[in-house]
Specification:
Strand content: 15-25%
Mean pLDDT: 90
CATH superfamily of the largest domain: Response regulator
Strand order of the largest sheet: 2-1-3-4-5-11
Bound molecules: alpha-D-tagatopyranose
Structural class: alpha/beta
Number of domains: 2
Radius of gyration: 25 Å
Oligomer: single chain
Low-confidence stretches: 1-33
CATH topology of the largest domain: Rossmann fold
CATH class of the largest domain: Alpha Beta
Number of helices: 10
Length: about 325
């Protein structure tokens, strides 16, 4: 028989129906069929933290895990050994063809993490930023973070109150250039310091997020700046290092230390008088909301591009009333 356009069309339709029936039989309906693409009925979320075994990220994981369970999704958590873009890229690339439906990630560098995260997005996963963010705002469906600039400002106001009008110099310890959160805290602090003319900044020092480097910067600043009255440590590693530097120089309590975060070691330091104040974030809330946004995106519900989580200034006097903001070592 000669094939007319009509017989070609009906043969194609029959093939399509047969394929659909076969797919139904194998339970594949709803899956994309492309091994690089997450299936539509995929209930798997992955959280990639900034660094492993750190109380900030553990608390974030606890919030995310509980929410994922509540919403009927699984959550797998991974983290690089160090807060390092190359190491985190390896973790992102290792997702390979077994992609989660959504990736929650704390990018360790606002630019260097763009390409690997974009690739995951191109292969069909939804992206949610938790804590840190990329400069490129077109990649993630949502970003959940503290208001870090505001946190820096709050730290400067707290330090100014502690110093009480005395003139002197102030040191800021940042982590790594390209870390959106701590860079914003350092800037917020420095901007606010201009409203306190008795306090002079000796500049922002980067520490590569290594407590040892932070301790060394404090030792050097104490030696070179006799009128040093305060230090702002923009995260828990810089804070822990600063406390070590002050301890080594016998300057605990003489130079005010305002830290960011509320790790068990910082909380103990606050109780012992090594820190005069801590600005605690709410990492569990960041994790919880991160999962909610990822699930909303997957289920075709509205998402919010930017969500701000809470911040709390804590001193020794009110620390017992603020225990709920202390970070966890395990869920
Ligand atoms: O301060 C947090 C987090 O917000 C920041 O982005 C990186 O450092 C921490 O994880 C604490 O070490």
């Amino acid at each position: 028989m000669k094939a007319t356009p009509r017989t070609v069309l009906s043969a194609a339709s029959a093939l399509a129906v047969a394929a659909l029936v076969a797919a139904c039989g194998s339970g594949q309906v709803g899956q994309s069929g492309d091994p690089g693409q997450p299936a539509q009925n995929n209930k798997k979320l992955t959280l990639i933290q900034g660094v492993q075994a750190e109380p900030f990220y553990i608390s974030m994981q606890c919030g995310a895990q509980a929410e994922a369970q509540k919403l009927g999704y699984s959550l797998d958590t991974q983290a690089p050994q160090k807060f390092d873009a190359a190491m985190q890229t390896e973790k992102v690339n290792a997702l390979g063809s077994n992609l989660p439906a959504a990736l929650l990630i704390a990018p360790t560098d606002a630019q260097a993490m763009l390409a690997p995260i974009q690739q995951v997005k191109n292969r069909g996963a939804k992206i949610v930023e938790v804590d840190t963010a990329l400069d490129d705002k077109s990649v993630a469906v949502s970003s959940i973070s503290s208001n870090n600039a505001e946190g820096g400002k709050l730290a400067a106001q707290t330090l100014a109150k502690l110093v009480g009008g005395k003139a002197g110099s102030v040191l800021v310890l940042d982590t790594i250039a390209g870390t959106s959160t701590t860079n914003a805290r350092a800037k917020g602090f420095s901007d606010e310091l201009k409203n306190h003319p008795n306090l002079k900044s000796v500049g922002i020092q980067f520490t590569q997020n290594e407590p040892d480097q932070a301790a060394g910067k404090v030792t050097a600043a104490i030696a070179s700046t006799p009128d040093l009255v305060g230090i702002f440590a923009t995260n828990l590693n810089t804070g822990e290092g600063a406390a070590t530097g002050l301890r080594n120089a016998g300057k605990i309590g003489q130079i005010n230390l305002v830290g960011f975060d509320a790790s068990p070691s910082e909380v103990e330091g606050l109780r012992k008088g090594e820190y005069q104040a801590l600005i605690a974030q709410d990492p569990a809330e960041i994790g919880t909301k991160g999962v909610q946004q990822a699930v909303a995106a997957l289920e075709g519900k509205p998402t919010e591009r930017n969500i701000t989580a809470g911040l709390h200034s804590i001193t020794k006097d009110d620390m017992d009333a603020n225990q709920k903001y202390f970070y966890k070592q395990q869920c």
